[in-house]
Amino acid sequence: MRYRIDTERVDLFDVNIVIVMKVSLDREVPFEDAKKAFDQACGLHEVLNSRVVIEDSGEAFYVDNDEPHNSMSLTELSLEDLIYENERKRFKVDDGEFIRAFVSNEGLVFMMHHLGGDGKSLLYFIETFMNCLTGRECEYLPFRSLALSDLPKESKLPFYYGLLARSWNRKWQKDRKVFRFNDLDDAYSKFWKDRKTRIETKRYSKDDLEQLLKNAKNAGVSLTAYLITDWIKDTDAAMDVGIAVDGRLDGNRSMGNQATGISIRSRYAPVKSFEDNSREVFKAMRRKLDDFRSRYLVLQFIGLLDPTLKDSLNLVHAGCFQSKTATKIAELLGYGDKVKDISITNLTRADIQTEYGDLHILETVFVPPVVSYAKNVIGIVTTGDVMTVTRHVCDS
């Protein structure tokens, strides 16, 4: 195995890049059984049996790893305390640590570094885990990511963006540095010294969810657009909203970061009805989603940048690297003081089964990471009849 870390390179040096899911079951699972199933599930996903290396050229790769460091343990901590304890402990992807799992009083908690995959990837891992737990046969799943060469031809960047990327790469050569994992360790120490994140989760019952869906349908918009409108309605200024999008082109169920994203800028107009405002939000979303250039713009452009420049953006954000060029580019790309007001990932209805033999998944809580270019991150997932919406914020 040797896969170049390409469009997902900005995840490598981010100091807050862990996806969290808590799964509530209808009964407790003995730790020994859960640990056995976890080890089996890890063995079935290629990326979880790899590690990350940074070469002298500055390129980084996933390579084969004979001794993965994914783990499962017991905990009595609440979900928020568990996140607090783990967010400041770097995932050692250089040793092959992509997932930490926990059996808690609240359910099963899975924490995954974004280089292990996106939100859907973690759902697919949970499905593998549940199948192993109940003795079902599972297939081996190779690693998949979105390399530049994999992106649709229709998403090719306008000529100007190529010129801009090459200009930035030339300017970066003066300060260019190949960062190592000890630089990331220093970034973690500095960034988390006086910070912590907090979460707020709202649970929507079957009746609540049906009413929301009915309201969105009557307005002629998606549930995501309806919720965004509700979140921006009490603000006077225009809001920058980032929306994560599944980038899978073939519906594969492999683990790997295959997410892309769009952004919209929207201001709530008090003179219009809530429904009219939601239709404006939905229209802005559809314009981006229906245009392949807009849908894959971020991946296409970021993919053109020097890999070490991408690393520097996160280190500038963490406050442990100074460079005139890197700082300016970080500001322009949203890694500085001006970040996205809201960043949303809606996994919609979880694309996995809820029934596994005599075990039943009751609900799932999804906590996306507060990445360097966002400050209010919202994770939405529907499991069975329950939708949970979790807001994840980093306090400094």
**What distance separates the N and C termini?**
40 Å
Largest sheet: 6 strands, mixed
Q: What is the topology, as strand order, of the major beta sheet?
A: 5-6-7-2-13-12
**Could you spell the SSE succession in H and E letters?**
EEHEEEHEEHHHEHHEEHHHHHEEEEE
- The number of helices is 12
Low-confidence blocks of residues: none
Measured as a percent range, the helix fraction is 25-40%
- Strand content bin: 25-35%
Structural category: alpha+beta
Instruction: Give the total of beta strands.
Output: 15
Give a brief description:
With 396 residues, the protein is of the alpha+beta class. 34% of the residues lie in helices and 25% in strands.
How would you sum up this structure, described in words?
The structure is a single chain. The chain is of the alpha+beta class. It is built from 12 helices and 15 strands. It has helices spanning 31-43, 79-87, 119-133, 159-172, 181-191, 206-219, 223-232, 274-289, 292-295, 297-304, 307-318, 324-332, and strands at residues 2-4, 18-25, 50-54, 60-64, 71-74, 99-104, 107-113, 196-204, 239-246, 259-266, 342-349, 355-356, 359-367, 376-383, 386-395. Strand 6 and strand 7 form a beta hairpin. The longest helix has 16 residues, at 274-289.
